[in-house]
Amino acid sequence: MDVGMGEGTTALAGARIIDGTGRDPVDGLVVVVKDGLIQEVTRRPPREAVVVDLDGRTLIPGLIDAHVHLGLSSDMQGLVTGQVSAAEIAASIFRCAEQALMEGFTTVRDAGGIDAGVVRVITSGLMPGPRLLVSGPILSQTGGGGHYAPGWEPVCVWESRDLPGLLGMSLLADGADRVRGAAREAFRRGADFLKLMVTGAVLAHEDELEHTQFTVEEIAAAVQEARARGTYVTVHAHNNAGIRNALAAGATCVEHGSRLDEGTAAAMAEHGARLVPTLAVVHQLIDSAQDVGLPHTVGVRAASVLDGMRDAIKIARSAGVLVGSGSDLIGPDQSRRARELLYRSELLGPMAALVAATRDNAEILGLADRVGTIEAGKIADLVVLDRDPLDDPRAFADDVAMVVQSGRTVLARV
After folding, report:
1. Which residue, among 381, 278, 276, 329, has the nearest Cα to 70 in the 3D structure?
2. How confident is the model at residue 107 (pLDDT cuts 50, 70, 90)?
3. What pLDDT does 133 receive?
4. For residue 399, which of 239, 274, 293, 395 is within the disulfide window of CB 3.0 to 4.6 Å?
5. Distance of CA 351 to CAs 141, 315, 319, 323, 367, Å?
6. Which residues pair with 63 in a beta bridge?
7. Which 3 state secondary structure label does DSSP give 39?
8. 406: phi > 0 → left, psi -120 to 50 → alpha, else beta; which?
9. pLDDT tens figures, 286-296
10. Are 244 and 255 in contact (CB under 8 A)?
11. Strand 37-42 to strand 105-110: parallel, antiparallel, or no bridges (unpaired)?
12. Which residues contact 268 (CB under 8 A, 6 or more apart)?
């Protein structure tokens, strides 16, 4: 397989194409790439094109992970207690970013942690990584789901651990005015959108998943700041009361949603809100929370949300909610990110899993006119798999043969 993708016109031929729209796969078509864009999908390559024969492999759009934490790619206990150096944190972040790209994730949405400096490094090409949309530091109430410090530590110590330009895990804010200030600070640090913790979290020390966090007034302050910048608020939320508070305040995306019921799903649909479930991290924590530097009790809490999150996917889809795909992996080993597609395939089949991780995630990220499907005019983000994932979804994670980002080959395994 000749994998050269030069500056001229390249034609990817000989592959089965699954274009990310949900349409049936097609054989015999050629994807023509020039200047980083898909110029056309046609039957014959242009005369001037360099033809890359994909030899019966499968071509899919670049994958999108709508919930990542590249900044949380160190030992978690060491990270939140200040025991990991800036050099080690930086090395882990960039290793994790490169790994995501090499696994076929050409775009990711970081839902809390990395700062604008990381984005500039990757966007400039100094280090390889996926296209990034970031929330900057998470917004959390004091003692809430984003306040990971041990209970004995004074509040004033928490934000002193921020590493400007590299990592800021969360900003603590209580009251609408302080939330407004934290939102403005997150945007000052380069946030593309905001993320708020509005219920308890699996990782949190002192709160429960049934707890709600931030008032409607507090959430609304963040929403107002986001709308002033033409963007949105997404919320970490497990229980229905927290989700309904967020909807009342104007938030338009929900992460996790493990306790979602039919009535709340209908309210989400009415408000045009989206859901990003995160099955992969639940399995990761159940299998071994200790491997990411967390106690066994975290794995027990994770197990309590697994069935609910599976049900939430079906409930939300039935209500007409757009359901995306996020892995939420944490800790030093964030490999095989496409396991999220495997778990989704078990529920809904591999085609639905692929559409969620391409077209639907592009819609959630506000990039539907640029990425997510194999169509003329879109950015040439493409992944070649050795096997057809519709026959065996394990191919999503195990059989990446080639990755193209913005028309440039970044991985080729011949």
Report:
1. 329
2. very high
3. 98
4. 395
5. 39, 19, 20, 14, 20
6. 105
7. strand
8. left
9. 998 888 888 88
10. no
11. unpaired
12. 243, 247, 254, 274, 275, 316, 319, 321
